[in-house]
Amino acid sequence: MSDELKRSKSSSRSKASRMLRRLFLILISVILLFFFGVPFFLSSSGGTRFLLGKINASVDGQVEMDNFSMGWFKGVKLEKLSYADSSGNTSVKVEGIQTHPRYLSLLSGHVKLGKTIVDQPQVYLKVPGTQDTSIPTSKSEPRIPSPDESGDAVPVFPVNQIDLELIDGNAIVEIPGDTPQMVTFKNIASKVKFDQADKSGSVALDMNVDDAPVSAKGDVSLDKTGWKIKGGQFDVKISNLQLEKLKPVFALAGQEMDLGGQLNADMTVAIEGNK
Predict the structure, then answer these.
(1) Sequence-separated contacts (24+) of 64-72 with Cβ below 8 Å
(2) For residue range 118-139, what is the model confidence (pLDDT) as tens digits?
(3) Strand partners for 234
(4) CA-to-CA separations, 110 to 113, 132, 166, 172, 222, in angstroms, rounded
(5) How far apart are CA 242 and CA 259, in angstroms?
């Protein structure tokens, strides 16, 4: 009787052992399927169409790209990315974007993009027609916007860490009309590093505003929330910048300003308390 009991217990342990091995193999298979299957699917043509469908369903306009690839070790790469809004006022074309996100940080709710390169972005912005303020339309005093309308709220940037490099960018801001006005930003090269963990960052920018070289470089400290700059110091150099060329930029920001003259500067600009 004792021998039969021993054999029964041994058989039960053997069955339990086989069950555990099967569960372990199933778990490993699921992990491997996720590890290799997700990048494989998203990198396929079907996966790219799936992503584009989701993006285009949530934006006002059309996003297109030639290729999307993803790997746990090689990062994420997009090629020939473009966007055009439905009004025709905004268009963006990028030769390529490559980033190396830290996927494990997503588990803790943090987005850390790591080294990110944006290659040859081309941006076009058309300023919508503005009201002619030279002839008053009412004798009433202008309405002062409420604090909610003034834009004082600082948006929280959803990325906790980034090391961004922009290569050979170009941008055009245009005011259409019988006599169109535009300003062109050429040869844009920029490096931005922000780390929300230690509230620090650095910015470097070189470009030509039409034919005027402009550069700025400095280190900053960040506010506790978002990417609001709390303080910092920048070395700024500007040569032969025609101020009237900047009218489209101010119009884009909702400010009608008539400027004239030429700006030259070689200075250090300090920011303290967000000012």
Answers:
(1) 68/42, 68/43, 69/43, 70/38, 70/39, 70/42, 70/43, 71/39, 71/43, 72/35, 72/39, 72/103
(2) 999 999 999 876 544 433 444 3
(3) 218, 269
(4) 10, 46, 23, 34, 17
(5) 9
pLDDT tens digits for range 140-162:
344 444 444 444 444 445 567 88
With contact defined as beta carbons under 8 Å apart, do 91 and 85 qualify? yes
Pairing type for strands 161-175 and 67-71 reads unpaired
Provide φ and ψ at 28, rounded to 5°: -65, -40
| CA-based R_g, the chain, Å | 28
Cβ 44 vs Cβ 71: under 8 Å: no
Tokens of 175: 């005011």
Structure tokens at 235: 């070395």
pLDDT value at residue 165: 94
**Residue 9: which residues within 8 A CB-CB, separation 6 or more?**
none
Evaluate whether 250 touches 257 at the Cβ level (below 8 Å). yes
193 touches 162 (CB < 8 A) = yes
Contact indicator for 185, 207 with CB cutoff of 8 Å: yes
Tokens 């906790």 -> residue: 160
**DSSP of 13-68:** HHHHHHHHHHHHHHHHHHHHHHHHHHHHHHHSHHHHHHHHHHHHTTSSEEEE-SEE
Alpha-carbon distance 209 to 186, whole Å? 6
pTM of this structure: 0.70
